[in-house]
Amino acid sequence: xxxxxxxxxxVGPRPDVENFDASKEVFRALVTEVRLVRPPNSNAASSVQPxxxxxxxxxxxxxxxxxxxxxxxxxxxxxxxxxxxxLPGLEYVFFPDNDRMVLYTGGSFLVSRxxxxxxxxxxxxxxxxxxxx
Length: 133
Known about the structure:
Blueprint: H1 3-6, H2 16-22, E1 26-37, E2 51-63, E3 69-75, E4 91-94, E5 109-110, H3 114-128
Antiparallel strand pairs: 1-2, 1-4, 2-3, 4-5
């Protein structure tokens, strides 16, 4: 299941508009807790790899109906990883996939700079547009 996330990150994310359309939920959240999860039989030779589980509190919903507080998953940060490197106390915009993974390549990002604020404003504007079904 997490084998695809274990490979080196060699591609960047798609444009925010494409990630927005492809996602069921898009939201800004404060990470409140992180924990390393080691599934049974996870080791360097296995396709089952450890991951980071993070609890969050919603700050703003841009699409869908995510839980006010819930859990997302991220890869373990490291060289070649597509992980966001989730840390408690920081805000992120999440584009979770069906497995609740919120990787860099899926469009999720840290809210830490003016550039991030500009992206959020653009997502709000995009969310207000009529959507094709």
